[in-house]
Amino acid sequence: MYLTKILKITFILLFLGGLFFVYRYFNPVEHSFFVPCPFNYATGYHCPGCGSQRAIHQLLHFNILDALRMNPLLVLSLPILFVGVGNQVWNYIFETQYRIKLFYNNYFIYGYFIVVILYWALRNVPYYPLNLLAPAN
Amino acid sequence: MESFNNPTENRPDNNLVWAILCTVMCCMPLGIVAIIKSTKVNELWALGDHEGARKAAADTKKYSIWGAVITFVFVILYFIFIAIIGIGASVFD
Lengths: 137, 93
Description:
The complex is a heterodimer.
Chain A (H helix, E strand, L loop, with lengths): L1 H24 L12 H6 L8 H8 L4 H7 L1 H23 L11 H17 L15
Chain B lengths: L15 H10 L2 H20 L2 H42 L2
Helix pairs in contact in B: 1-2, 1-3, 2-3
Protein backbone atom coordinates (compact mmCIF):
# COMPACT_ATOMS: atom_id res chain seq x y z
CA MET A 1 0.00 0.00 0.00
CA TYR A 2 2.83 2.37 0.86
CA LEU A 3 4.43 1.67 -2.51
CA THR A 4 1.32 2.63 -4.53
CA LYS A 5 0.96 5.76 -2.43
CA ILE A 6 4.57 6.78 -3.03
CA LEU A 7 4.21 5.98 -6.75
CA LYS A 8 1.04 8.08 -7.00
CA ILE A 9 2.62 11.02 -5.18
CA THR A 10 5.73 10.79 -7.39
CA PHE A 11 3.59 10.73 -10.53
CA ILE A 12 1.57 13.77 -9.40
CA LEU A 13 4.74 15.66 -8.48
CA LEU A 14 6.26 14.91 -11.92
CA PHE A 15 3.05 16.05 -13.63
CA LEU A 16 2.95 19.28 -11.59
CA GLY A 17 6.66 19.83 -12.27
CA GLY A 18 6.01 19.50 -15.99
CA LEU A 19 3.13 21.99 -15.81
CA PHE A 20 5.33 24.37 -13.80
CA PHE A 21 8.08 24.14 -16.45
CA VAL A 22 5.69 24.80 -19.36
CA TYR A 23 3.87 27.71 -17.71
CA ARG A 24 7.02 29.27 -16.29
CA TYR A 25 9.18 29.20 -19.42
CA PHE A 26 6.61 29.60 -22.22
CA ASN A 27 4.39 32.66 -22.45
CA PRO A 28 0.98 31.67 -23.90
CA VAL A 29 0.93 35.05 -25.67
CA GLU A 30 4.02 34.16 -27.70
CA HIS A 31 3.55 30.43 -28.38
CA SER A 32 0.73 28.86 -30.33
CA PHE A 33 0.87 25.33 -28.90
CA PHE A 34 -1.28 26.21 -25.86
CA VAL A 35 -4.81 24.88 -25.99
CA PRO A 36 -7.23 27.75 -26.61
CA CYS A 37 -10.53 28.02 -24.78
CA PRO A 38 -13.11 26.12 -26.87
CA PHE A 39 -15.86 28.57 -25.85
CA ASN A 40 -13.79 31.58 -26.87
CA TYR A 41 -12.72 29.85 -30.08
CA ALA A 42 -16.32 29.04 -31.02
CA THR A 43 -18.10 32.24 -29.98
CA GLY A 44 -15.47 34.97 -29.63
CA TYR A 45 -16.75 35.74 -26.09
CA HIS A 46 -14.70 35.25 -22.92
CA CYS A 47 -15.63 32.46 -20.53
CA PRO A 48 -14.93 32.77 -16.75
CA GLY A 49 -11.67 30.85 -17.22
CA CYS A 50 -10.32 32.79 -20.20
CA GLY A 51 -6.89 34.26 -19.52
CA SER A 52 -6.07 31.65 -16.86
CA GLN A 53 -3.04 30.23 -18.67
CA ARG A 54 -1.65 33.74 -19.27
CA ALA A 55 -2.39 34.66 -15.64
CA ILE A 56 -0.56 31.56 -14.35
CA HIS A 57 2.44 32.41 -16.52
CA GLN A 58 2.54 35.91 -14.98
CA LEU A 59 2.05 34.53 -11.45
CA LEU A 60 5.02 32.19 -11.91
CA HIS A 61 7.06 35.34 -12.60
CA PHE A 62 5.56 37.07 -9.52
CA ASN A 63 3.81 39.71 -11.66
CA ILE A 64 0.62 39.78 -9.62
CA LEU A 65 -0.77 42.91 -11.28
CA ASP A 66 -0.29 41.49 -14.79
CA ALA A 67 -1.92 38.25 -13.63
CA LEU A 68 -4.90 40.22 -12.26
CA ARG A 69 -5.25 41.89 -15.64
CA MET A 70 -5.55 38.49 -17.33
CA ASN A 71 -8.06 36.78 -15.04
CA PRO A 72 -8.78 38.47 -11.67
CA LEU A 73 -11.27 35.84 -10.51
CA LEU A 74 -8.77 33.02 -11.01
CA VAL A 75 -6.04 34.89 -9.12
CA LEU A 76 -8.41 35.62 -6.22
CA SER A 77 -9.67 32.00 -6.17
CA LEU A 78 -6.23 30.38 -6.13
CA PRO A 79 -5.63 30.79 -2.36
CA ILE A 80 -8.94 28.99 -1.62
CA LEU A 81 -8.01 26.26 -4.11
CA PHE A 82 -4.54 25.90 -2.58
CA VAL A 83 -5.97 25.45 0.92
CA GLY A 84 -8.58 23.00 -0.41
CA VAL A 85 -6.16 20.89 -2.41
CA GLY A 86 -3.54 21.04 0.36
CA ASN A 87 -6.14 19.74 2.81
CA GLN A 88 -7.02 16.88 0.44
CA VAL A 89 -3.36 15.97 -0.03
CA TRP A 90 -2.78 16.08 3.74
CA ASN A 91 -5.78 13.81 4.34
CA TYR A 92 -4.50 11.41 1.67
CA ILE A 93 -0.91 11.21 2.93
CA PHE A 94 -1.59 11.12 6.68
CA GLU A 95 -4.98 9.32 6.44
CA THR A 96 -6.82 12.02 8.38
CA GLN A 97 -10.34 13.32 7.74
CA TYR A 98 -10.07 17.07 8.11
CA ARG A 99 -12.90 19.02 6.48
CA ILE A 100 -12.90 22.72 5.62
CA LYS A 101 -16.11 24.14 7.04
CA LEU A 102 -16.40 26.81 4.35
CA PHE A 103 -16.85 24.08 1.74
CA TYR A 104 -19.82 22.66 3.63
CA ASN A 105 -21.62 25.99 3.63
CA ASN A 106 -24.13 25.97 0.78
CA TYR A 107 -24.40 29.76 0.91
CA PHE A 108 -20.70 29.90 0.05
CA ILE A 109 -21.09 27.42 -2.81
CA TYR A 110 -24.14 29.09 -4.38
CA GLY A 111 -22.65 32.55 -3.73
CA TYR A 112 -19.46 31.64 -5.53
CA PHE A 113 -21.53 30.12 -8.34
CA ILE A 114 -23.51 33.35 -8.79
CA VAL A 115 -20.29 35.39 -8.74
CA VAL A 116 -18.88 33.22 -11.55
CA ILE A 117 -22.00 33.64 -13.71
CA LEU A 118 -22.04 37.44 -13.16
CA TYR A 119 -18.32 37.58 -13.91
CA TRP A 120 -18.92 35.67 -17.13
CA ALA A 121 -21.49 38.22 -18.30
CA LEU A 122 -19.70 41.36 -17.08
CA ARG A 123 -16.28 40.58 -18.56
CA ASN A 124 -17.88 40.52 -22.01
CA VAL A 125 -19.13 44.11 -21.70
CA PRO A 126 -16.70 46.09 -23.92
CA TYR A 127 -16.80 49.34 -21.90
CA TYR A 128 -14.56 50.72 -19.16
CA PRO A 129 -14.29 49.72 -16.32
CA LEU A 130 -15.93 46.33 -17.01
CA ASN A 131 -13.48 45.59 -19.82
CA LEU A 132 -10.74 45.40 -17.13
CA LEU A 133 -12.27 42.00 -16.25
CA ALA A 134 -11.49 40.67 -19.73
CA PRO A 135 -7.98 39.38 -20.51
CA ALA A 136 -5.64 42.25 -21.43
CA ASN A 137 -4.28 42.39 -24.95
CA MET B 1 -8.10 25.54 14.21
CA GLU B 2 -11.59 26.96 14.06
CA SER B 3 -12.15 26.57 10.33
CA PHE B 4 -11.43 22.83 10.37
CA ASN B 5 -13.66 20.23 11.96
CA ASN B 6 -12.90 17.53 14.45
CA PRO B 7 -11.23 14.85 12.29
CA THR B 8 -13.02 12.00 14.05
CA GLU B 9 -16.42 13.10 12.69
CA ASN B 10 -17.34 10.70 9.93
CA ARG B 11 -19.08 13.03 7.50
CA PRO B 12 -18.16 12.10 3.91
CA ASP B 13 -15.81 14.40 2.06
CA ASN B 14 -18.00 16.41 -0.32
CA ASN B 15 -15.12 16.63 -2.82
CA LEU B 16 -16.01 20.26 -3.59
CA VAL B 17 -12.36 21.14 -4.29
CA TRP B 18 -12.22 18.66 -7.16
CA ALA B 19 -15.58 19.84 -8.48
CA ILE B 20 -14.35 23.46 -8.53
CA LEU B 21 -11.00 22.50 -10.05
CA CYS B 22 -12.85 20.51 -12.70
CA THR B 23 -15.06 23.52 -13.47
CA VAL B 24 -12.15 25.95 -13.61
CA MET B 25 -9.54 23.88 -15.44
CA CYS B 26 -11.52 21.22 -17.24
CA CYS B 27 -14.98 20.47 -18.48
CA MET B 28 -17.36 23.20 -17.29
CA PRO B 29 -20.72 21.41 -17.75
CA LEU B 30 -19.63 18.31 -15.81
CA GLY B 31 -17.93 20.49 -13.20
CA ILE B 32 -21.19 22.32 -12.56
CA VAL B 33 -23.06 19.03 -12.17
CA ALA B 34 -20.35 18.01 -9.69
CA ILE B 35 -20.72 21.25 -7.70
CA ILE B 36 -24.51 20.78 -7.44
CA LYS B 37 -23.95 17.17 -6.34
CA SER B 38 -21.49 18.29 -3.67
CA THR B 39 -24.06 20.67 -2.15
CA LYS B 40 -26.37 17.63 -1.87
CA VAL B 41 -23.79 15.99 0.43
CA ASN B 42 -24.33 18.73 3.02
CA GLU B 43 -28.12 18.74 2.68
CA LEU B 44 -28.55 14.96 2.85
CA TRP B 45 -26.11 14.65 5.77
CA ALA B 46 -27.99 17.35 7.69
CA LEU B 47 -31.25 15.45 7.06
CA GLY B 48 -29.68 12.28 8.45
CA ASP B 49 -29.59 10.47 5.09
CA HIS B 50 -26.02 9.26 5.52
CA GLU B 51 -26.26 6.70 2.70
CA GLY B 52 -27.51 9.36 0.27
CA ALA B 53 -24.79 11.76 1.38
CA ARG B 54 -22.10 9.18 0.73
CA LYS B 55 -23.61 8.47 -2.71
CA ALA B 56 -23.70 12.19 -3.57
CA ALA B 57 -20.04 12.48 -2.50
CA ALA B 58 -19.12 9.54 -4.72
CA ASP B 59 -21.07 11.10 -7.62
CA THR B 60 -19.22 14.40 -7.15
CA LYS B 61 -15.93 12.55 -7.45
CA LYS B 62 -17.16 10.57 -10.46
CA TYR B 63 -18.28 13.65 -12.43
CA SER B 64 -15.06 15.52 -11.57
CA ILE B 65 -12.94 12.61 -12.79
CA TRP B 66 -14.98 12.32 -16.01
CA GLY B 67 -14.56 16.04 -16.61
CA ALA B 68 -10.80 15.68 -16.19
CA VAL B 69 -10.70 12.63 -18.50
CA ILE B 70 -12.70 14.41 -21.21
CA THR B 71 -10.40 17.44 -20.99
CA PHE B 72 -7.30 15.23 -21.12
CA VAL B 73 -8.58 13.46 -24.25
CA PHE B 74 -9.50 16.82 -25.79
CA VAL B 75 -5.97 18.17 -25.15
CA ILE B 76 -4.33 15.05 -26.63
CA LEU B 77 -6.58 15.26 -29.71
CA TYR B 78 -5.73 18.95 -30.02
CA PHE B 79 -1.98 18.21 -30.03
CA ILE B 80 -2.44 15.43 -32.61
CA PHE B 81 -4.47 17.88 -34.69
CA ILE B 82 -1.85 20.66 -34.65
CA ALA B 83 0.90 18.08 -35.29
CA ILE B 84 -0.95 16.88 -38.42
CA ILE B 85 -1.47 20.47 -39.59
CA GLY B 86 2.20 21.23 -38.96
CA ILE B 87 3.40 18.17 -40.86
CA GLY B 88 0.91 18.85 -43.67
CA ALA B 89 2.06 22.46 -43.96
CA SER B 90 5.73 21.45 -44.18
CA VAL B 91 5.03 18.67 -46.73
CA PHE B 92 2.90 20.77 -49.10
CA ASP B 93 4.78 24.03 -48.67
